[in-house]
Amino acid sequence: MPPRIPKKPQTEGSFNFDPDQFLEKWEKGEYGVPKDSNDFQKCIARAFGLRANDSYIYRATAEVTLAQAQTYLNYGGQGRLLEWYRDEEGKQLPSPPQADITAYTLSFSPSTSTTSSLRALSSNAKRASLRASIATHLLSLYSPPTFPIPKLKSPQPNPYLDLWTWTCPALQWAGPDPGTAQTRISHALLPVLYHHFGCVVPSWDALVTILTLAKGRAVLDVGSGNGYWNYMLRRTTVPGVKPAAEVLPIDSGVSEWRTMWVGDTIAADGPEYIRRHRAGGKEDVLLLVYPQVGGEFTSRIIGAYEGDTIVVAGTQNANGFTGFSSETIGEWMGREKKEFEKVCQIPLPSFAGKDEALFAFVKKKS
């Protein structure tokens, strides 16, 4: 049987979800981030039009209801729920101070320069501190694009980025450090956010990078999931950058999502669709957002693609969450696709216990 993918944007169990209205109300402040840690359940229910007794089971890194996610949030750091950082001997480190958490989240604000923010994260850190370790780690992997990323005085609405920013102090998270590669725990908030928005947050830098590299061409969003990245790419306008000709959501429909942001997802096997309907994608940009591990998913899609630009949003350590079980997409591309060169690697807003980035590869000129 063909996959059952909704033909219109929707949230299961919602009585009023509409993506455009959602962003309009978010921008006006009618919807917004939780007022405090006790408000998460009400915030999600209010924004997505869910009933007070909502019983949907969010399945991802764990299985929780919205009410259960709120309960875990209320527990705070009890029961080792917020143990994100350990020293070299494996002992838990103290929670990062609010100032360090804020400095990390500011790195992803559309109104700031990522390069300057990461340098400030480092220069203002105390020697041998957790903040210093985080900053050194992020800077060691950071490879900005050669083109400028414009700063915005009035950022375009991105509810997922706002909610992610809120989760950082709520979960006592100040960014990934080298030890994050060994982290195997996550928080019960994540399945809720994954189902409504996707597995990783599209930052302003990421959206600008994709659209700039596309140069007006079509973007093949293969494994598009619930379509949040797709929806944001269609809405984003970048000064001086030509919009993508189209952003095509392509997905097999294997994964379950409570919210779908687009209603025109093409239900298809990615490699087959690229070969049969896009001539190998010779004139297209390939986008992979949080590609799954297993079934040679990533290698099959890249193998079918005959174009010159590949962008991947996934983990930047070898923890096996995306792409490949024991290496990053950068390492795999360097070995298996030598005809491509990495043109940038920029950190993405990473959830507690995660370390994510946007990689871009362009085929070398012969």
Task: Describe the protein's architecture and organization.
The protein is of the alpha/beta class and 366 residues long. The protein is 34% helix and 13% strand. The chain has 13 helices and eleven strands. The strands form three sheets. It has a seven-stranded mixed beta sheet, with helices on both faces. It is globular.
C-alpha termini separation? 44 Å
Following the backbone from N to C, one meets helices and strands in this order, namely EHHEEHHHHHHHEHEEEHEHEHEE
Unreliable residue runs? none
**Beta-strand content bin:** 5-15%
Structural class: alpha/beta
The dominant shape is globular
The tally of strands reads 11
- The total count of helices amounts to 13
Mean pLDDT: 94
Q: In which order are the strands of the major sheet placed? A: 7-5-4-8-9-11-10
What radius of gyration results from the CA coordinates?
20 Å
**Tell me about the biggest sheet?**
7 strands, mixed
Summarize the structure.
With 366 residues, the protein is α/β, with parallel strands linked by helices. 34% of the residues lie in helices and 13% in strands.
